[in-house]
Amino acid sequence: MLPSKMTFQALFLSLFCVVLGEPNVITQTEHMKVNEGDAATLRCTLTEPSDVLQVTWQKDSEKKYTNIATYSTMLGLKIHDPYQDRMNFTSLVLNDTSITFWAASLDDTGCYICLFNVFPYGSISGRTCLSVFGLSVSVHYNISRGHLIAICNAVGFPEPTISWNNLFNYTPTQEKVRHTNGLMSITSKLEISDSQSISKQDLTCRVSNKNEEMELPIKIKNEEGFSFLGLMIALGILLVILVLILITLSWRKRICKRTYGGY
């Protein structure tokens, strides 16, 4: 039996791959580091000129790969949500691809895969990582029946630390979460039983890492002002009720006079 045409094609492709050797991927930098808000470019290049059909960039997040950008000469380029208006291809050469984040954010921290669909080898990939140095902080508080709860949150890289300018003899609790992309989240919770003891002082959350420091003051509003307002409203309501009672009694008294005065 003569070998089929498909068998000859498969044999030819195998010999072709062996003779030429599969190209490798070179990344511009294995680990790029930028400050938050700066532009960041990731680049991958094939070592040998090849017939690249399509290039795909993926983000390695939470142990899964998410497509963020694709390009081919036939279908053009596509930037996937939520990266539209935040990044784009800065090289449309199929065997030398690069993408640029216009203003890198903390969420862009992580590792990225450049995936070349190459004929006749199939998929060939490279890996490069991006670290964005920055700090995102927030603080809020709540007072209920004289009990104060203040919460300070920080997310950043390198790892941030949280402290308070005054603990008022109380000990805050702290929780840390290290994300797979290297970012660290910290939450500090301070509970004070007698909020009146700090009503005339400022409470400040201090957040810092190796690159920057931030202070977030908490202006404690005096609850007495709210109590006084509530008291005035209550007195106003009582006054209205008292006036209505007096009017009712006066009206009933007049009716009684008219009734008994007729006899």
Automatic annotation (TrEMBL):
Localization: Membrane
Main location (coarse class): membrane
Gene Ontology cellular component terms for the protein in this record: axon; cell surface; membrane; neuronal cell body
Superkingdom of source: Eukaryota
Membrane topology: Single-pass type I membrane protein
UniProt-listed GO biological process terms: heterotypic cell-cell adhesion; negative regulation of macrophage activation; negative regulation of neuroinflammatory response; regulation of immune response
SMART domains: IG, IGv
Coiled-coil segments: none
GO terms, molecular function: cell-cell adhesion mediator activity
Signal peptide segment: 1-21
Domain Ig-like: 23-114
Keywords: Disulfide bond, Glycoprotein, Immunoglobulin domain, Membrane, Signal, Transmembrane, Transmembrane helix
Membrane-crossing residue ranges in chain numbering: 226-249
UniProt cross-references to PANTHER family, sorted A to Z: OX-2 MEMBRANE GLYCOPROTEIN
Protein name, UniProt field: OX-2 membrane glycoprotein-like
Species name: Aythya fuligula
